[in-house]
Amino acid sequence: MKQYSGASVLMPAFSYTECTVPSFKVYYTLQEFNFQKVFFLHPDYLLRLSNYWKQKRLKFIRLSSGMMLVSAALELCESITLYGFWPYSFGLSEQPLSHHYYDDVQPKHNVHDMPSEFWTYARMHLEGVLKLHLGNC
């Protein structure tokens, strides 16, 4: 983390119950070394965010962490380029893909509406709201 000294870290402490304890462990560790400022999304913000996207007709049990982060970035950043958002089990070259960059777990169906989220990003790309980068970086 020292390499990214000065960067802000957004922790999902209140996104899901199981995230609270690990998020605070990271927070206290980073504070001890004074590498980064750590921020948390307020639970009320997350509830309003979920309601907003449901009004936009996204169907999900839980908003994905990616959609939470993109939504926050839309409010905070002048420009956004998304890399690695792909809702399908196979990539453009038909290679198998996992749900997360850090494991081999396949997505649980009906928890997130990844195809709808992806097409929301694609629509925002066409409208010039953000840049959606597909393929290799």
From TrEMBL:
Membrane topology: Single-pass type II membrane protein
Subcellular location: Golgi apparatus membrane
One Pfam family here: Glyco_transf_29
Keyword Transport belongs to the record: no
Main location: Golgi
Record-level Gene Ontology MF annotations: glycosyltransferase activity
Keywords in alphabetical order: Glycoprotein, Glycosyltransferase, Golgi apparatus, Membrane, Signal-anchor, Transferase, Transmembrane, Transmembrane helix
Gene3D superfamilies named in the record: Glycosyl transferase family 29
InterPro entries assigned: Glyco_trans_29, Glycosyltr_29_Sialyltrsf, GT29-like_sf
Domain of life (superkingdom): Eukaryota
Family: Belongs to the glycosyltransferase 29 family.
The protein, known as: SIA8F sialyltransferase
Organism: Polypterus senegalus
Lineage: Eukaryota, Metazoa, Chordata, Craniata, Vertebrata
Gene: St8sia6
